[in-house]
Write a structure and sequence with these properties.
alpha/beta; Dehydroquinate synthase-like, alpha domain; seven-stranded mixed β-sheet; homodimer
């Protein structure tokens, strides 16, 4: 599968048993230097196995602390320091091995080091495999808001070994399913129906079901990103549930709820704001609940909601914009919503 | 004059009396919010005058401390904090008002805020007008090397009011002339000869002479950048004298010598390394001296030279590369040079 972006196009390679050297990444490394960026949790499981996919390379590594609360400029700078310390040149490749947090920080570091060096994504969580590793959004959080500092910076290749999901904690698997459900809700009613039928298999980590879902999500994302790389328009639909979700993460303090959990509750808030038919809201609610995800946000004061959402990147001319659903599988970005209904939803 | 970069093309507007509202910048502002980034020295002179060029805009400002030693991540983050504090959205425009340091930091902040917002350059030094404001190189220094952290990020427009040179200190005017001489040396023998004839007028701040030089340099830079935006090849010739120059700045501690002064001495070192004909080395030496610029580097130990140059962004596969001259007006990037001669040059 390829993300079509002209001279920045890149392949997404999905399969079982790709680590341990069964897919050669060295052809994507211009020089011989690589820096593998991982974290304390993932590195012990997969770092040595990934080294086998980088034959002939001079591989160094750095492990970040694990968790969204460390997705900061300071952590990003620690990667740059490591690159400088190893006297890495412009031909170095930065390889992200881990979940969405590792990928976002490592990608931003790759974008900034010497004004941009090659970047390779090896996502090991479901969330990163279906969403954050594809499309080139990189960045870190600011004390006042999520992902406020970053770059659009595409990887040279995304390598998804679905076996890595075997070691993923249940809670993180569910969090990844929030983004999977998102794709169905915003642009693929057929896939949404498939998820309703197959949620039990996904939770049981059935390899075929997970493989199918990952393929489908990557294909949908690649199509949307190819059409609108820098989110001038349609790409914003991928943020369904995220305006509310980011506000939850921000108000809770990063790391309390997982990103996918916040997005799950956020999708239901957005569906209600959309004025979606009750039966469709219930379908979404049942599917989110079936995945073991929260259908309601935590208690947050309406003023805190408003303040946190004011930093959303979709705000235009001071007006909040939301991704709203016309129906399951049909979405749009809009500033036209019922503000009284929004207040009701925020009051919970 | 236009920098041709497809959908990222932008105009360079050069003239006298453009401030005080005589050129409307508001058409380059998508929303109404602007943040003018300047410094303690330039803002008192030109900030109010620039506001007149932004009619109808909601203009905020931040003044950075003045000098290369403040070209750091910390200073860049202070701009991001100011943007967040003013709750700026993706439609904000960041306007750099000042010299190369202000432009480089502000441009990098614009590149990073919400993964990229609009950026406008209003350079007020000769160096920024002829070189750093055009072409999209932005960034800050790392403790271990110059411009190691940054982005290629093009402005939407460059506005050059040549009147601003009236307030430029002599030393900074001379530093800008180093980059002017560079263009002649690397790609325009005719312009080099013109500079030999007209250096006195330039130093006397003759408006016509300065205007002509600025036009010529911007045209040369626009052509090179259009051909090779991200410095995959030919653009590197613009770094003539800079491998040595950056090492001088780094070893001296940023702010001791001005960038242009370090580049001036660096160009003569590079010319000597090139094995250029003695008569041409002397022409370059005379022109550099006529501009009031240093023709010799400060005392630096050879090991310190080597270490500092090892962080140069042109290094490939561990090999230093230099911009070398075949003749005045004819340059190439090469790793083929006489290493013994390099040692002699470093020993001074």
């Amino acid at each position: 599968m390829t993300v079509e972006l002209g001279d920045r196009s890149y392949p997404i390679v999905i399969g079982r048993d790709l680590l341990d050297g069964h897919f050669d990444l060295s052809e994507f490394v211009r020089g011989s230097d690589c820096l593998v960026v991982s974290n304390e949790t993932v590195a012990p499981l997969y770092y040595e196995r990934l080294r086998a996919n980088l034959p002939g390379c001079d591989v160094r590594s750095i492990n970040l602390p694990d968790g969204e609360s460390f997705k900061t400029v300071a952590t990003m700078l620690s990667i740059l320091d490591r690159l400088v310390e190893s006297r890495a040149n412009r031909d170095v490749a930065v390889v992200a091995l881990g979940g969405g947090v590792v990928g976002d920080i490592a990608g931003f570091a790759a974008a900034c080091y010497m004004r941009g060096v090659d970047f390779i994504q090896v996502p090991t969580t479901l969330l990163a495999q279906v969403d954050s590793s594809v499309g080139g959004k990189t960045g870190v959080n600011h004390a006042q808001g999520k992902n406020l500092i970053g770059a659009f910076y595409q990887p040279r290749v995304v390598l998804i070994d679905t076996n890595t999901l075997d070691t993923l904690p249940d809670r993180e698997l569910a969090a990844g399913l929030a983004e999977v459900i998102k794709y169905g809700a915003i642009c693929d009613a057929e896939f949404f129906a498939w998820l309703e039928t197959n949620m039990a298999q996904l939770l049981a980590r059935d390899a075929d079901a997970l493989g199918y879902a990952i393929h489908r999500c990557c294909a949908l994302k690649a199509e949307v990103v190819a059409e609108d790389e820098r989110e001038a328009g349609r790409r914003a639909i991928l943020n369904f549930g995220h305006t509310f979700g980011h506000a939850i993460e921000h108000c809770q303090g990063y790391g309390e709820w997982l990103h996918g959990e916040a997005v799950a509750a956020g999708m239901l808030m957005a569906a209600r704001l959309s004025g979606l038919a009750e039966k469709d809201i219930h379908r979404l609610e049942r599917l989110v609940a079936a995945a073991g995800l929260p259908t309601r946000p935590p208690a947050i004061a309406p003023d805190d909601w408003r303040k946190a959402m004011g930093m959303d990147k979709k705000v235009q001319g001071k007006a909040l914009r939301f991704v709203l659903l016309r129906a399951i599988g049909d979405s749009r970005v809009s500033a036209e919503y019922d503000d009284r209904r929004l207040n009701e939803i925020l009051r919970g």
